[in-house]
Amino acid sequence: MRSKDLDRSRELLLNCSRPLLVTHVAPDGDAVGSLLGLGWVLWALDKEPVLACQDPLPRRFDFLPGFDEVTDRPSGHFDLLVSLDCSDPGRMGQIGAYPGVRGAPLLNIDHHLTNLEFGVANLVDVGAVSTTQVLYRFIRALGVPLDGRIATCLLTGLVTDTRGFRTSNVTADVLRVAVELMEAGAPLAVITRNGLDRRPLGALRLWGAAFSRMEVDDGVVWVGLPLAVQQAIGHDGCGDAGLANMLIGVEGMHVAVVFTEQEDGQVEVGFRAVPGFDVAGIALALGGGGHTLASGCLVPGPLEEAQQRVLTMLREDLARQRGQAPVDDGRHPQSG
Ligand SMILES: [Mn+2]
Predict the structure, then answer these.
(1) Taking the model in full, what pTM does it have?
(2) What's the 86 CA to ligand 1 centre distance in angstroms?
(3) d(CA 91, CA 56)
(4) Assigned CATH topology for domain 201-321
(5) If you compute the radius of gyration of the chain from its CA atoms, what whole number of angstroms results?
(6) DSSP state, 97?
(7) How many whole angstroms from 36 Cα to the centroid of ligand 1?
(8) Which of 102, 234, 236, 336 is deepest in the core (most CB within 10 A)?
(9) H-run or E-run covering 221
């Protein structure tokens, strides 16, 4: 994070009066936490922020202060657009194309390795475990005091993006930030129970269907979830419901992939890798983005063809990463 970006970001935020804050489609805990956390900072500064997300927030975050303030239909004119936890403008979905932000400067706050630095100021720290950790530093630079509401929102991003401080990027400094947020009033146990353990019944039904469809080949475990299967179990569209995180725990696996067919026929692809492997590159090559060990993209359907295409690419990429030539056993068409 460059200090000129910090200065420029502070200037943009302090000089705006009605900013539009937007986080990514299919929001996760860091998306919701950074959106609401910055919202409370701006309310404390007597600004009139509007908080927006194209998709509904998962119910498990309803304990967060400001949960009901988020809209999918902003109205009126804005003098600043702030994107949160978005690696590229497309992640903002329809909100990014809202006419009322035309001409307004864009402040990009994120921590994704694949961030395209698409703002007039880019507060991007790829070493941060969450966008809320980037925000924590920003709030300190703004001189806004941490209150319980802000701290709760920020700690939620830290907890969910690290799956409860279990990822390899968790350092003593990250824990020190968590301690400060707890001291400011953030309830760690409430955040962990809601943010990580609470899930709709449909999620477990989805896992049940997924486990029976699981396939394994050469260090890769994957699952394809056709729309018909999701509809038959009444899955309410909460992404893969944490499935990819669970699959990467399978012994001997290097990469896990979940293919979820969408209503519009496109296929959402979620990648996870164990340390030593990288799935940011393949997601970026497929028009998506993310982190070294967790990434995703949206590819054209139909499901079966999408799986073949992505798995072929992945197999070649992994062969390169393992420092060997790809093995062509004839089961997957080569993309050339
Ligand atoms: Mn994040």
Answers:
(1) 0.85
(2) 8
(3) 14
(4) Diaminopimelate Epimerase; Chain A, domain 1 (3.10.310)
(5) 20
(6) G
(7) 14
(8) 236
(9) strand 220-225
